[in-house]
Amino acid sequence: MFKAAIIQFMPILGDIEKNIRFISKQLLETTDAGLVVLPELASTGYNFTNIEMARNLAEVPEKSAYVQMLHKAAVTNNQYIVTGFNEQCGDELFNSSLLIGPEGLLGTYRKMHLFMNEKKFFKPGEGGLNMYDIGICKLGMQICFDYLFPEPWRILAQKGAEVIIHPSNLLTHNAAKALPGIALMNKVFIVTANRIGTEEELAFNGNSMILNPSGDVLIKASSDRNEILKLDVDPTLAQDKMITSMNHVFDDRRPEQYTADNC
Ligand code: ACM
Question: Which of 35, 146, 157, 242 could be joined to 142 by an S-S link, Cβ 3.0–4.6 Å?
Answer without folding.
Answer: 146
